[in-house]
Specification:
The structure holds two protein chains of two kinds.
Chain A: E1 4-12, H1 16-25, E2 31-35, E3 51-52, H2 63-73, H3 80-100, E4 114-121, E5 128-133, H4 139-153, E6 157-160, E7 162-170, E8 173-181, E9 187-197, H5 218-225, E10 230-231, E11 236-243, H6 253-256, E12 260-262, H7 270-273, H8 283-295, E13 306-309, H9 312-322, H10 336-342, H11 344-354, E14 363-372, E15 376-377, E16 383-385, E17 392-398, E18 403-404, H12 416-437, H13 450-460, H14 468-482, E19 486-487, H15 489-506, H16 520-544, E20 553-554, H17 562-565, E21 567-574, E22 577-584
Helix pairs in contact in A: 1-4, 1-12, 2-3, 3-12, 5-16, 14-15, 14-16, 15-16
Chain B: E1 2-9, E2 19-26, H1 33-44, E3 63-66, E4 69-72, H2 78-81, E5 84-88, E6 95-97, E7 100-101, H3 104-112, H4 134-139, H5 157-161, H6 167-178, H7 186-193, H8 207-211, H9 218-231
Parallel strand pairs in B: 1-5
Antiparallel strand pairs in B: 1-2, 3-4, 3-5, 6-7
Helix pairs in contact in B: 3-6, 6-7, 6-9
Classes of the chains: A alpha/beta, B alpha+beta.
Chain lengths: ~600, ~240
């Protein structure tokens, strides 16, 4: 085996979760962080509005309130023990980030500043609470930079621009990964005692998406091929405010700062769907409301978009109507300059991509594919699970968006993704290092690299009668049209048939680049295979769940059905067939009840 | 509309020398240059190689020269750059293939300025945050925006002339810590920058400021670091 490396812990992915895991694992175990991108290019950097923690810096708040809001936001599908753990850990985690140097915005008295966000409430009054700790509208960027800086400070070993292509399993234990060095095209074998998967989401399956090109679901596609389960794959979040046609994210922080959604008649329609918190309802509720408005002809000029309006006159008008006040009790008012200072990147995006200045014009928005709630099942320590009974896969860990703990259940609250990756990245790193200390290197199977060698040579020698870009485009369209915000049986059946047809056509793709150096065509073709596999899994899970819950909304089953569906979906690929099982939801304190905002 | 896209091409496994290829394609005023490159890769020549990820100007992968100016391909729209577009790799870093350059020297320079908070004083005993006033936080706000895309450093004639010069991006990141009231290692960083290959290689040409896709006032930040060295202390 050429290019053989040995590390006790290998982390795959260098976004927030991977860096946090690498930072913690490397304290006690020989660790490598492998990423297909330079770490600072990771998608964590695109997160904008904030990271949630009940610091109570501006008003009363408690981790218990954060826990309840997250449970409710999850439409009661989140596991309450894990949610409670995350929300308790949130507070020290934010302080740790601050101590690492994260430049949070500050309150007048010098504390970490916090802003309201969708679904985060004062549990007594039901009104929005300031819980999102922020650094302008680039909080994810600052988390990513800070964690990378800390990794440099602590001499964490990186393999940048190495694409992991396969997991090595040895007698049921994780034993390492196979990766290609993009600059040379050479395959490398990383022999390890523990592997932490932190590859992020797969939002590139949909046509309109806020997700990076890199978000191709490499981690779950690989573990699925190894016969390991995925959990709750039918739950994917559509963020309400993507830039029209482009899908680029406009943070919920815009609404946290007082921005409102308006339809073609100039109505603040969220008043009708969520009378209490209106534009700060959770994302699934708002995306569906937007869809309904557009479907009923109330889009702007009858088109498929609405306005997000953060002009000072609009903000001030609705803040007065809502009776919104500052922490000192004075009426809430904003100026154009304050909008610019609090949301500089949003203003920049709108100017560049739309030619619109949000301080003087409303922004055209539509829901955009955003976040993967499902993924590789883990317990709250990041240990990957092999089955519905909670059996741990020795040596395998997952953290961040790729993992399903599940703290987000059927719908994630804004700010909880950054929190998730910091908390569970840390625990996955700690657990993996601890495990590695007490374990031997599993023997490397002789055929470890065979599968991927064969797969790559197939991509190079296809008939070439199919074009990978066409396949990708058709997949994205059918998934957005039929496995998107609203779903019905017939449409999803059509999508499933289409995806399976595309999987067949994929076999005829041929990569024209025969070189080794930065063969990005080959890598993209491999990534497309991952997206297709996951699109099939998602569609099968969506068809299977005959209810509406959180991000999974069905026209033909419009109600949540706790009698039959208060359970997690598990799905395996065995002998080429997808098989579904179930796992109960962990309920500790909060019995499911009707969800209104 | 018809767009003429002229692209620098070099494949070390095939070409003895670099050359340009011209592609005439259909596009829209709102297309990003990145969209055009993707189209060429998807339908005309799959071997065309470039880096990209977020596609909206926050990850820094697709820095390149577009009509002679360093920009992110995902932030340059046809309506801004016109329908005759020339795309070339960044200058001053070795071309590996097509639009992909060797970023290692760039990141090595970044690492030289100790790009991480250094504070040996224990955090508050209650475990909570270190305090910082909004005014102190504002001093280094601009330089926290850096995405390490290398647009600034590879637009700098001093860097072209001598790649031992740490370059604007490294100084921007030094500034981010030097002026952070919580940091205690300003003098160590200033020592690195008060050298042959530090801030004095900056001749205030302003290319860096013009190139920055995050609109960081790079030359101003370098000037503030120069002043900090001259005064021998920060405040």
């Amino acid at each position: 085996m050429s290019n053989l490396h040995q590390f006790e812990v290998v982390v795959v992915g260098a976004g927030g979760a991977g860096l946090m895991a690498g930072l913690y694992a490397s304290r006690t175990a020989k660790t490598a962080v492998i990423s297909k991108l330079y770490p600072t290019r990771s998608h964590t950097g695109a997160a904008q509005g904030g990271v949630g923690a009940a610091l109570g810096n501006l008003e009363e708040d408690h981790p218990e309130w954060h826990t309840f809001d997250t449970v409710k936001g999850s439409d009661y599908l989140g596991d309450q023990d894990a949610i409670e753990f995350m929300c308790e850990e949130a507070v020290p985690a934010i302080y740790e980030l601050e101590h690492m140097g994260l430049p949070f915005d500050r309150t007048p008295d010098g504390k970490i500043s916090q802003r309201p966000f969708g679904g985060h409430t004062n549990n007594v009054t039901g009104k929005p609470v300031r819980r999102a700790c922020h650094a302008a509208d680039r909080t994810g960027h600052m988390i990513l930079q800070t964690l990378y800086q800390q990794c440099l400070k602590n001499n964490v070993t990186f393999y940048d621009e190495f694409q992991v292509l396969d997991l090595i399993m040895s007698n049921g234990k994780a034993a390492g990964v196979i990766a290609v060095e993009l600059a040379t095209g050479e395959l490398h074998t990383f022999h390890a005692k523990a592997v932490i998967i932190a590859t992020g989401g797969h939002g590139r399956i949909w046509e309109i998406t806020s997700n990076a090109y890199a978000y191709t679901g490499d981690g779950p596609a690989i573990t699925l091929r190894h016969g390991l389960p995925l959990e709750d794959m039918e739950f994917f979040q559509f963020h309400p405010t993507g830039i029209y046609k482009l899908g680029i994210l406009i943070t919920e922080g815009v609404r946290g700062e007082g921005g409102v959604l308006l339809n073609g008649k100039g109505e603040r329609f969220m008043e009708r769907y969520a009378p209490k918190v209106k534009d700060l309802a959770s994302r699934d509720v708002i995306s569906r409301a937007m869809y309904m408005e557009m479907a009923e002809g109330r889009g702007i000029n009858g088109q498929n978009y609405l306005y997000l309006d953060v002009r000072p006159e609009t903000v001030n008008k609705y803040a007065a109507l809502d009776g919104r006040t500052n922490p000192d009790g004075s009426p809430y008012r904003v100026t154009g300059e304050q909008i610019l200072a609090k949301l500089p990147d949003i203003v920049d995006f709108c100017r560049v991509y739309l030619g619109v200045d949000p301080v003087t014009q409303p922004m055209p928005v539509q829901p955009t594919a955003h976040y993967t709630m499902g993924g590789i099942p883990t317990n709250k320590f990041g240990e990957a699970l092999a089955d519905e009974k909670g059996t741990v896969v020795p040596g395998l860990y997952a953290a961040g968006e790729v993992a399903c703990v599940s703290v987000h259940g059927a719908n994630r609250l804004g700010t909880n993704s950054l929190l998730d990756l910091v908390v569970f990245g840390k625990y996955a790193g700690l657990r993996a290092a601890e495990y590695a200390k007490g374990a031997d290197f599993p023997p490397l199977p002789a055929d470890a690299g065979d599968y991927i060698q064969e797969h790559l040579s197939r991509l190079r020698s296809g008939t070439g009668k199919e074009n990978a870009f066409d396949i990708a485009r058709e997949m994205k369209k059918v998934m957005f049209d039929h496995v998107g915000i609203f779903r019905v049986e017939a449409g999803m059946q059509q999508a499933l048939q289409k995806i399976r047809e595309l999987q067949e056509r994929y076999k005829h793709v041929s990569v024209t680049d025969t070189g080794k150096i930065f063969n990005t065509e080959l890598i993209s073709a491999w990534e497309l295979g991952n997206l297709l596999d996951l699109a099939e899994v998602i569609t099968v899970c969506c068809l299977n769940r005959t209810e509406s819950r959180g991000g999974h909304a069905r026209d033909d089953y419009p109600k949540r059905d706790d009698v039959n569906w208060l359970k997690h979906t598990m799905i395996w690929k065995r002998n080429g067939q997808l098989q579904i099982g179930y796992k109960p939801v962990t309920i500790t304190k909060y019995q499911p009840k009707e969800r209104t905002y | 509309m018809e767009i003429t896209l002229k692209v620098f091409r070099y494949n070390p496994e095939k070409d003895a020398k670099w050359h340009y290829e011209t592609y005439v394609i259909e596009g829209q005023p709102t297309d990003r240059v990145l969209d055009l490159l993707e189209y060429v890769k998807g339908y005309i020549d799959g071997t065309l190689s470039f880096r990209r990820s977020c596609a909206h100007g926050v990850c820094g992968s697709d820095a390149m020269r577009i009509n002679g100016r360093n920009r992110l391909a995902c932030k340059a729209l046809v309506r801004d750059v016109g329908t005759k577009i020339t795309v070339e790799p960044l200058i001053g870093l070795k071309v590996i293939k097509d639009l992909i350059v060797d970023m290692e020297p760039f990141f090595d320079n970044y690492k030289k300025i100790l790009p991480f908070l250094i504070n040996e004083t224990p955090p508050p005993a209650d475990g909570k945050e270190r305090y910082q006033s909004p005014e102190d936080r504002a001093i280094f706000d601009d330089t926290t925006k850096c995405i390490l895309c290398a647009c600034c450093t590879t637009s700098c004639p001093s860097f072209w002339a001598n790649d031992d010069y740490v370059g604007p991006a490294a100084i921007v990141n030094a500034h981010r810590f030097i002026f952070d009231s919580r940091d205690e290692a300003a003098n160590e960083r200033l020592k690195v920058l008060n050298s042959m290959f530090g801030v004095y290689r900056c001749h205030t040409i302003f290319n860096c400021t013009e190139a920055c896709p995050r609109e960081i006032q790079v030359t101003k930040a370098i000037g503030e670091v120069k002043m900090a060295i001259l005064r021998g202390k920060i405040k």
